[in-house]
Write a structure and sequence with these properties.
alpha/beta; two-stranded antiparallel ribbon; 11 helices; eight-stranded parallel β-barrel; 273 residues; single chain
C-alpha cells in the first residue's frame, strides 16, 4: 500500500481504533458505593486497580456530589494508574421525545466528565422517535467534541430485538458516534455476538461483557455465553477498544470483588491482556 493510501485509510478509521490496543476495564456497578462519600468510590477504584484492570467506568451519580473536587479526582485516578474510561448516565425514566437523558443533565454531566478526566460520556436510552433520537445523539456528539470528550451510546436489550432491530439503523444514521456494545443485553435479545461484531465493528468502540446461567447472571466465564467466538470476530478485524466487565444483578446484589476477580482472569484468557 502506498503511503498516501495508508494515510487515507487511517484517517477514515474511527478515532478510538487508530492508536491503542485492547484495554481492559471494570464497571463499578458491581460494588455498593455510597455516592455522597468520595472515599467509598476511591476504595473501589483501588480494588479494581489491584485486580489488574486498566480502567474504570462509573455512574454519574457517584461523581456528581463531588464536582467541586474534580482536580482531586483526576489526581487520584492518575496516582492509581487508572483510566476513567467513562461516566455513564443511566436512568429509570428517559426523555419521552428522544429516549435519552434530558439535555440539561447531559450537558452538565459532559462538563463534569471532562473535568475529572474521563475519556467519554456514556449514554443509555430506550427506543423512541427515531429521527428525534438520532438528531439528539448527533447534537450530543458535537457538544462532547466541543468539550474535548468522547461520546458512546450504550445499548440495552430492546434495541436489538425484532427482525429489524433499531440499533443498526441508529448506527448508520449517527456515523461518528461510538457505540458501547453491551454484549450481555444483545445475547439475551437473541443475537449472535460474533455476527454483530462482523457486521458493526466499525461503530463499536467498546464492549461490556457479562455472563449468564439460564436467567441468572454469574461471574464472567462461569456461564453459557460464547464470548470466545465474539473475541475471534474482533480479532479478525483487528479491533481496538475497551473491553469491560459488568455486573448488574436482577436481584440488586453487589458481588464486588468476588465477581470482578474471576472476570479479570477470564478477560485475560479471552483477550490475552
Amino acid at each position: 500500500m502506498h503511503r498516501r493510501q495508508a494515510l487515507a485509510t487511517l484517517a477514515a478509521a474511527p478515532l478510538w481504533t487508530q492508536f491503542r490496543p485492547v484495554s481492559i476495564g471494570c464497571q463499578t456497578n458491581a460494588w455498593k458505593i455510597e455516592a455522597a462519600k468520595l472515599e467509598s468510590s476511591i476504595a473501589v477504584w483501588r480494588t479494581i486497580r489491584d485486580l489488574g484492570y486498566q480502567g474504570i467506568e462509573t455512574s454519574f451519580r457517584n461523581l456528581e456530589p463531588h464536582a467541586a473536587q474534580a482536580p482531586a479526582i483526576r489526581a487520584e485516578l492518575k496516582s492509581l494508574g487508572l483510566t476513567l474510561f467513562g461516566v455513564h448516565i443511566w436512568l429509570e425514566k428517559y426523555d419521552a421525545s428522544t429516549g435519552l437523558a434530558p439535555a440539561p443533565l447531559i450537558a452538565k454531566t459532559a462538563k463534569l466528565a471532562a473535568a475529572v478526566g474521563a475519556e467519554r460520556l456514556i449514554l443509555s436510552g430506550v427506543p423512541a422517535n427515531f429521527a428525534a433520537q438520532s438528531k439528539a445523539l448527533l447534537e450530543t456528539a458535537q457538544l462532547c467534541r466541543d468539550g474535548k470528550i468522547g461520546l458512546a451510546y450504550h445499548n440495552h436489550g430492546p434495541e436489538w430485538m425484532g427482525s429489524e432491530p433499531e440499533l443498526p439503523r441508529l448506527m448508520r444514521a449517527t456515523k461518528g458516534v461510538e457505540y458501547l456494545l453491551d454484549a450481555g443485553h444483545a445475547y439475551r435479545a437473541g443475537r449472535d455476538l460474533a455476527q454483530l461484531v462482523a457486521e458493526h465493528h466499525r461503530a463499536i468502540g467498546s464492549v461490556h461483557l457479562r455472563d449468564f446461567r439460564g436467567e441468572q447472571q454469574v461471574p464472567l466465564g462461569q456461564g453459557q455465553v460464547n464470548y470466545a467466538a465474539m473475541v475471534r470476530a474482533f480479532k479478525n478485524v483487528r479491533w481496538r477498544g475497551w473491553a469491560l466487565a459488568e455486573e448488574e444483578r436482577a436481584d440488586g446484589t453487589k458481588p464486588g470483588e468476588s465477581a470482578a476477580r474471576p472476570a479479570r482472569q477470564h478477560l485475560r484468557k479471552l483477550f490475552g491482556v
